[in-house]
Design goal:
heterodimer; A: alpha+beta; 6-stranded mixed barrel; 27 helices; globular; B: 3-stranded antiparallel sheet; two-stranded parallel ribbon
Chain lengths: 886, 114
Amino acid sequence: VKRLAARARAAWYALWRPRELDAAMDEEMRFHIEMEAERLVRQQGCDPLEARRRASVAFGGLEKYKGAGRDVRGFQWIDSISLDARLGVRMMVKHRGLTLAGGFAMAVAIAIGAMSFEIFSEVLDPALPVEDGQRVVALRYATDTPGGAERRVLRDFAAWRTELTTIEQLGAFRTVQHNLVTAHSLPEPVRVAEINASGFTVARTPPLLGRYLLPADEQQNAAPVVVLGHRAWQSRFGGDPRIVGQVITLGGTPSTIVGVMPDGFEFPLDHQFWVPFREDPLKYGPLQGPEISMFGRLAPGASMESAQAELTASGARAAADYPQTHARLRPVVLPFTYEPLGVTDPVRAWALRLAQLFVGALVFVVSVNLAILVYARTVTRLGEIAMRTALGASRRRILGQLFVESFVLAVAGAGAGLLLTRVALTQMQSLIVANGSVPFWINVELSTGTYVYAIGLAGLAAFVMGVLPGLKATSGGFNASLRQLHGQGGSRLGPVWTTLVVAQVAVAVAILPMAAYFAWQVVRMDTEGPGFAADQFVVATVAMNGDGAGVDSGTLLRRQRELMSRLEAEPNVSAVTFSSGVPGFAPGGRIELEDSAADADALEISTQHVALDMLAAYDAAIVAGRAFTAADLGADSVVVNRTFARKFIGSRSPLGMRFRYAARRLEAGVDARRSYQIVGVVRDFPGFSPAPGSQGEPTVYHPAVPGDVHPFLLAVRFNGGIPAGFTDRLRTIGAEVDPSLQLRRVLPLSELYGQLRSFWHYLAWGAGLVTLSVLLLSAAGMYALMSFTVARRTREIAIRTALGASPRAIVFTLVSRVARQLAIGFAVGALVAAGVFVAIDVRIGEVAPLVLVVTSVMAAIGLVAAVGPARQGLRVQASDTLKADA
Amino acid sequence: VTDNAALLPGTLDLLILKAVSLGKLHGYGVLLRIQQITDGALLVQQGALYPALYRLEQQGLIESDWGTSDNNRRAKFYRLTTSGRAQLGDEVATWNRLAEAIAMALRTTRGDIR
């Protein structure tokens, strides 16, 4: 122990106080020399100066022994690493092209790897951030449909609550939207959790103020109460410390605030308002009642497996008792965090892990590509390596040096990549927050784990691009390297090299057109405008309490009419209209054309129910037939868009054609028994494509009047710009019409489009960066390989010139050799690219120019890279190269 | 001193441990003590003493502190640790066995092996 302690102490000093140790060593050795000099003066009567000289000689090289003394400390490897790192930095500066292309590619690859690692880790982390969170579970009834679940399970929930022994504190919740009305602010729809009191005990989080919900609150006749989240308390009530006991109106019901939960508590998902869950299970039969989600905690001693076994047994009993409803259902228990994110069975979890691995492999692909480049650089340094070997450096030491050099490049790339990841994740997090409804435990910020992962990737990359080429370069042994030193290794680049060149070209030609095609499509999408004055519209999704069937259409009709007429009276308003969804983002349906002999398959379309004047309000011109009139209400008339006509009907006129809805599950408001007739064709709007490569979305418009559609998208159009403060004005008018009327997401339409399309915006950036990095890497790879191949033949060129060969013939021979390699690579790459394009259903004619452009660019790079060194070779005198051999 | 013998590899550490076992010494003192106890028969490269001292200190066989020399100068003094003493004992035994074996081998005459 003592010896270990002494070593640790010495290591500590060596690491942190090397200068002090150096000074002490210097003092000690000088003391020695002075003592020896004094002895010589004293015993041999030497002159003091001569004595000192002789003492120094007897001591030996002072610096040499100081160096040996430092080596003893055991940290000389730090010196050598720092030396190698400095050399690595110098190499980065010297080979700027490689640094730029390699560093950029590495940065993009590591950014993608780190980002996916962060997101996958968040999704796959089974622990809820509460005490003992990994034991909090979700229960669901899985259906035959993969990922599907039956949620009308109030009866089963009640049974499980009394019956299950492996899961305790079993509770249920559902999310509803209610208008929040306080004394100080406008009514605003908020997401409210109707939840069992056990939700708070299962999370084991005490309230910050007051109390949380109790089982007594769930009684039908109990006073209405609400618990607030910390965020809502701060933002809507200014953090009022006397909030407990105050009354707010939620969905028209005055409720007393009984408590505030601490910061960060948003269980079960992202909730800030909790009210008691008061549904009586006995009121409903099997698979009836509201849709609920269930949660609980594994009982002490119980495991996931034992809980699943108990549930399976219970499910088997239910299937026997209610074969009609329960035969196709399978009860499942899973980590609570997996349920809302759709990781609903082990296969999906494994699929996600596999995906994580594949994205990580991207870095590997980039590193292999870089390894080829670095190999070219390493081969040019074989002379240096031979020299170092001759001076006593071991192979391990040389490989270590190559590793550290590559690691410097990889770390620079990783640093840039992490910066990129940070920016992207911050954007993503704000996007998540803006769009709401993401579970509270999802926090995509750079975690320590991700930093470690990125550094690990950098290490792996450095190994692949430093050590592997190093192993190959040093495998020939000392003599081969020494021959290299004399420039005699020109013929060593054999079939392996040719294969590398061909592979490099093939991969570039195979991947680049695809990457460029995808990036182009996404960027085009991102830059497309809506094709109408979206910045003149304010939109809001309007709903009444009790989404779906519970809404009385008579009341809805009156409220909607009143709201719209109030808005029409506002200054500068040019139109007020409504539709069932946001234009361009309507839900899908399937139809069958009645008189089409050719197409037996159902056709995918989007369906919108719109006010009679809606198309005019959006400046959507009718290009054939007519617009809706009042006579169309209740009739079978529909208007379709141009894409519908072009895609499904072709050159014939679509007017008068009929179709039926085919799908079993229909959008609200359409009838499978009815046949609809096309009376008009409208231009496509909005103008942007719904997905990359899409030529537009076939859309069917049905006429509607107020009261037909719930919830509906209200659109208010202005002459010119939107007046300042209008969104608040809209809320006020809404509250005046009916305080329980919910106006969700009130904002300018242009802003809504920005949010809805932000995914494509970020994807466009991502795709652009990836394509650029692939392009740079391929171009650099091509240039390096080609110029290197020709540069290796400088001697041959010089000698052949000396022997009388015509320079033009020599260049031609060389370039044609290069061209042959290029041609093989192009052919292989183009074949692969064509195969993939056919597989993803892209017309070859559309992408042929792209393949051609990429091929030409790569050919140009390859030839320029070859011609430069070849011309240089012609200038070299044969006598010079021969002299170099001597 | 022309008839000095060069040190056998690995013996410098043993000599230092022995010298220091006889009393606390600074680096130069170690050199003088080795010369004294070997009667000047061994040639020690003076500078080489120091890396060896640091190595032994690193291994915890000797320890050091700064003090004042006989001529009133600041100097670093070394002394044997407990584990150094044990190590010295082991090495002396090993050395003696080796020396005896080699001496025996060298004493052997043709007559002895018949």
